[in-house]
Design brief:
This is Delta(3,5)-Delta(2,4)-dienoyl-CoA isomerase, mitochondrial. This protein is about 50% helix and about 15% strand. The protein is α/β, with parallel strands linked by helices and about 290 residues long.
Amino acid sequence: MLLWSRLFQQEVEAVKPPSIELMDMASVLLQPQGEDMVCISWYIHNLLSKHQETFSVIEKCPKPVIAAIHGGCIGAGVDLITACDIRYCAKDAFFQVKEVDMGVASDVGTLQRLPRVIGSQILVNELAFTARKLMADEARSSGLVSRVFPDKEVLFDAAFSLAAEISSKSPVAVQGTKVNLLYARDHPVADSLNFVVSVSFRPITVRLPFQCSQSELSSLLYAVCSDWWAIGYPPIFIGPTLIFPASSVAVTLFLPRNWNMSMLQTDDIVKSVQAAMEKKELKSVTFSKL
């Protein structure tokens, strides 16, 4: 989980949101490097691309990123938080697409990500054309943030608690979910479904390091494979095969290849199922690290 450690909380609070220095940018635009228009244009293109990547790397991080916002979130601050996966804010937070007041158009992420985040092009148009402030309650109702807290102390506690909860899940499952969510955001439903599941098959072996009855094994296999049945790709079973010592069972399956195959090839799914059968909390399970 990419969330600031409490150890560095004071240092992080002292850091301003990344921003593009207006004077430096003005100098670049008024006196750009290059001998002709093509060279100048290419230089500016590369410069802006570098600034865009500064924020895109947050979105590309394989682990979920949580933004905890208090006070003003202006200009590049909006670029930053819209690249995050989850956003919480304090009651005193406000959000402002300020670039139009500076005589420029936002060009490093806000205009591209904000419409997808809040799902209202009309509201994005209003915010971007007027540079008006979006206060915390309206940010919550529009979907920019999922929760609003009375002050930054409660906000940080909630953000760290959320990070701890997500961190208790299987890293393979969490990161695989993020991959699929990002792909689905930018592609049609049909393409996203094809991304998750392909028509090619590959064999895997699920090994259960505990004893279970035939009925328990059948229920487990159905739970593991129900998604493939639902979409019309029934798995082909070979087994079960008893492995000595008889405390473990291995089942070979031919399943459609997709991202979730990784889960079935780690111990995470076995640990989750075993915890459920033993009526244990998932928080007690130690998952494989990535």
